[in-house]
Design brief:
Number of domains: 2
Distance between the termini: 65 Å
CATH architecture of the largest domain: 3-Layer(aba) Sandwich
Largest sheet: 6 strands, mixed
CATH class of the largest domain: Alpha Beta
Strand order of the largest sheet: 1-2-3-4-6-5
Strand content: 15-25%
CATH topology of the largest domain: type ii restriction endonuclease, domain 2
Radius of gyration: 25 Å
Order of helices and strands: HHHHHEEEHEEEHHHH
Number of strands: 6
Shape: elongated
């Protein structure tokens, strides 16, 4: 029984699959060569293993996860932005088109803002997290929104944050050229509040979150043959450890890890 009223199960499932597809090469399996592509820090690995009282399997798995995770925020940004292609009265312009906005929401019946203003279009700049913009970036974004208001006096501009400090729809105040600026039609909005505005359903974002785990699992199960990685790093490290003339398996694996970063260093060269 599909419970979301603002997006169909088919569209939502396809969007989740498309997001998983954006993970691309990060889903490729890790062998030792790929694991050490940028030369890992063996000292850090050994500190982490000992301080966190973890096994070599856990430490290696964590390092692989860290390497995979470095650019995943961009993929989740795709999920947050592109879902609005499927929501009524919203569109997601192609990159660089229509002013470079992430989402545009148009409602001929009017869009009511918290201060009582009514507009018919909302232009959205979307960010994954509230602290991802430095002052220069924030100033540039605010000026872009000011320029949009000059061109269209029947619109509002939103900075929509997926991970905001709190649920909010407030006037955005920032600093431009060392001056504090703000405008009632330039607003800082948490993602839940934006969902509520465009769907007319107060808890739309919550409802989406409730079905998301099941749909991701379903999508991964359907795609499992092509996306589930089979990492061999720990097995290869253990094989290298067997070649060390060291009785302690733990120290032998440590030596194998040392050789990844220090193989040409004095004392390590046999």
């Amino acid at each position: 029984m599909w419970t979301l009223t603002f997006i169909s199960e088919k569209d939502f499932t396809n969007h989740v699959k498309a997001t998983i597809g954006k993970y691309g090469e990060k889903l490729e399996s890790f062998d030792l060569k790929r694991f050490n592509k940028n030369i890992i820090d063996p000292i850090k690995l050994i500190f982490d293993k000992t301080v966190y009282q973890a096994s070599w399997e856990e430490i290696v798995s964590n390092e692989i996860f860290r390497q995979r995770d470095k650019s995943n925020n961009n993929d989740i940004g795709y999920f947050h932005q592109r879902i609005f292609n499927y929501i009524d009265k919203c569109r997601v312009p192609d990159n660089g088109k229509e002013g470079g906005w992430d989402v545009i929401y148009e409602n001929p019946e009017g869009i009511s803002l918290p201060d009582g203003s009514v507009v018919h279009t909302v232009y959205v700049e979307m960010k994954n997290k509230h602290n991802t913009m430095n002052s220069a970036s924030a100033g540039k974004t605010f000026i872009k929104m000011q320029n949009q208001l000059l061109k269209d006096d029947d619109c509002a501009c939103f900075l929509v944050e997926a991970i905001a400090q709190r649920s909010q729809n407030i006037k955005w105040e920032t600093t431009v050229d060392k001056n504090k600026v703000g405008h009632k039609l330039i607003r800082r909005v948490s993602l839940d509040q934006f969902y509520a505005l465009v769907t007319g359903q107060e808890d739309a974002f919550y409802q989406m979150c409730m079905v998301l785990p099941e749909i991701i699992k379903k999508a991964v199960d359907e795609l499992s043959g092509s996306i589930v990685p089979h990492d061999t790093v720990i097995d290869e490290l253990k094989e290298l450890a067997k070649e060390q003339d060291i009785e302690s398996e733990d120290l032998a694996i440590a030596m194998a890890a040392y050789m990844l970063g220090f193989g040409s260093y004095k004392g390590f060269v046999k």
